[in-house]
Request: fold
Amino acid sequence: MRLTLWTAFWIFLADQLSKYIVLYQVDLPNQPNQTYDVFPPFLVLRMAWNKGVNFGLGADYDLRWVLIGVALAITVFVIWWVRKADMGRWALVSAGLLVGGALGNVIDRVIYGAVADFLNMSCCGFTNPYAFNVADISIFVGAIGLVLFTDGDDKKKTA
Reply:
């Protein structure tokens, strides 16, 4: 459990720090075309305020508080599951990735009303039209990790 919480803490911190730097140091929202070339085309900072879920789905609707509630419910469930199940090290890290990323995006929705996405990566003739952030990466990797590193057998811990 401790490994999950520490992983969540560091992911949350990295996510919020990266957003602070991009929003207030690079001042991405006020850059021309709201972009900043870091290592084009492989890494470009491109500002996008996501009011919906992945790829902006549902952005036309006011889902802010619904999405905050869903993220918090998932966070509570994952923490409950980690406490209940006998998970290995990589499953605990995966749970921390998911929780830290979810809470990072919750903070954005509470403060800004939308999630601050800014990472854009393209390669090899493919131009990616979407932006994402550290929290999005963590949620994705954490969810995949929980699928791969949990065996589905929720035995109660004996220790």
Q: What stands out?
A: The chain has four helices and three strands.
